[in-house]
């Protein structure tokens, strides 16, 4: 966390070592998490969710392009803070993993990818899965744990939601990582095309 320097992360103010424990003092952030906003206001607009997801693609892409790659592994509305000026911050780096070794079963049930729950290797596509579930939750208001058989279909909740956006979310949340977007850059391109109403 100390070496990560990016506008979407809270800054580290101080590191204190005390009695064989390490304490990291983070910047105080004003705002609400997207989970709090969802609970207060219900499902969010397609325009807002797509804008937020595009920003999160930048954040996750930055992490994935670090050397070694950093896998966030806990993408969910409760870990994304919206500040008064409209900027997003990604918070809670407790499940972050770097490198290519074994990855323990971390993350939040409902948002965690199948490979996480199976204790298998996590990679960029694991975070893409979590972002897809986050989009689904924000757009529909449906808790991910209520979804049967992992079928995150937007139009099953509301016919007013776009077919194109439905395809994007379903591709993010495929159980098989090989069937998801290979990178956040690829996902961001489709979100950009959707926002600009280009053919996907």
Quick overview:
By secondary structure, this protein is α+β, with helices and mostly antiparallel strands. It has a single domain (31-195), classed as Transferase(Phosphotransferase) domain 1 (Transferase(Phosphotransferase), domain 1). It contains 6 helices and 7 strands, in the order βββααββββαααα.
Structure description:
The chain is an alpha+beta fold and 200 residues long. It has a single domain (31-195), classed as Transferase(Phosphotransferase), domain 1 (Orthogonal Bundle). The chain has six helices and seven strands, in the order βββααββββαααα. The strands form three sheets. The chain has a three-stranded antiparallel sheet with strand order 3-5-6. β5 (80-82) and β6 (88-90) form a beta hairpin. α2 runs antiparallel to α6, α4 (124-140) packs antiparallel against α5 and α5 (163-172) runs antiparallel to α6 (184-195). The longest helix is centred in the first third of the chain and has 19 residues, at 46-64. The mean pLDDT is 86.
Spell out the blueprint of helices and strands.
Blueprint: E1 12-18, E2 21-26, E3 32-33, H1 34-41, H2 46-64, E4 70-71, E5 80-82, E6 88-90, E7 97-98, H3 114-117, H4 124-140, H5 163-172, H6 184-195
């Amino acid at each position: 966390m100390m070496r990560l320097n990016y506008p979407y992360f809270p800054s580290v103010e101080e590191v204190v070592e005390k009695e064989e424990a390490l304490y990291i003092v983070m910047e105080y952030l004003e705002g609400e998490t997207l989970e709090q906003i969802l609970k207060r206001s219900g499902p969010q607009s397609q325009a807002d969710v797509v804008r937020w997801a595009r920003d999160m693609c930048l954040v996750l892409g930055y992490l994935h392009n670090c050397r070694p790659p950093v896998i966030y592994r806990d993408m969910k509305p409760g870990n994304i803070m919206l500040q008064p000026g409209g900027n997003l911050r990604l918070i809670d780096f407790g499940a972050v993993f770097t490198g290519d070794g074994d990855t323990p079963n971390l993350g939040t049930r409902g948002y965690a990818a199948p490979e996480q729950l199976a204790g298998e290797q996590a990679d960029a596509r694991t975070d893409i899965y979590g972002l897809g579930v986050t989009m689904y939750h924000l757009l529909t208001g449906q808790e991910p744990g209520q979804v049967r058989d992992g079928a995150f279909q937007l139009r099953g909740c509301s016919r007013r939601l776009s077919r194109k956006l439905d395809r994007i979310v379903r591709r993010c949340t495929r159980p098989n990582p090989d069937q998801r977007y290979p990178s956040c850059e690829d996902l961001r391109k489709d979100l950009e095309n959707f926002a600009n109403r280009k053919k996907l």
